[in-house]
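Side project, low priority. Logging it here so it doesn't get lost.
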Amino acid sequence: MSENLKFEIDNGIATITLNRPEKLNAFTPDMLEAWLAAYRECRDSDAVNVVVLTGAGRGFCSGGDVARMGESADASPMDAKTRLASSVQQLPLTLAEMDKPVLAAVNGVATGAGMDVALMCDMRIAAESARFAETYVKIGIVPGAGGAYFLPRLVGYTKALEMLLTGDFVDAQEALRIGLVNQVVPDDQLMEKTYELARKIAANAPLSVRLIKRAMVQGLTMDLRSHLDQISSHMGVVRGSEDHKEALAAFKEKRTPVFKGR
């Protein structure tokens, strides 16, 4: 694991901390490699029910390291495309395979691809000091990590286009107003409130949580009949699970259920 990324799992909650605070957690190649490895472990491990992504220091993530961009400025168009596809674009593609909820705890500035990695999470909790900007246009490039895909799905076409074409910053309260984030909390309560939400989700039946997320994500590109057909299959799976039986028993016995994810 890279020294630029911290990864830990505790009581069903995985925490990934971008750890390059002196550069506002701008990406490095080894950092992305470790990040992808962490996402894949979260995707595959039954020990993980919820994932929390945050940044060390005063920023969430400033995206690609602009100072390093000049090093690859002379790469051929095909080489540049291949490099992008094999690095940061693997983050959203890996998350698309993950049924477990991913929460972004946005502790400060999130710009460019740093904003994109917040957008590709399932929910965003923002500190009051958080600020968001799609800054690609300011340096003459295009959203490389999915910003033009995720942003309009969250805030609508016109607001997303305004943000993408101006590169202007949006503060935490405006982000809440336009539906970019789920909550805004005091800076010193960010992780407490994020883990509070994570624990609430993690306490539920894991199969139910995962299949609900899968149904929502896939339902966005399905017609109604196909969605209902899928849900009937999911219902057959969960109703035959040990966790469903445990939930019914706990309800009758007026106790808290103990779920095992099977």
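Brief comment: The first strand starts at residue 5 and ends at 10.
Revisit when time allows.
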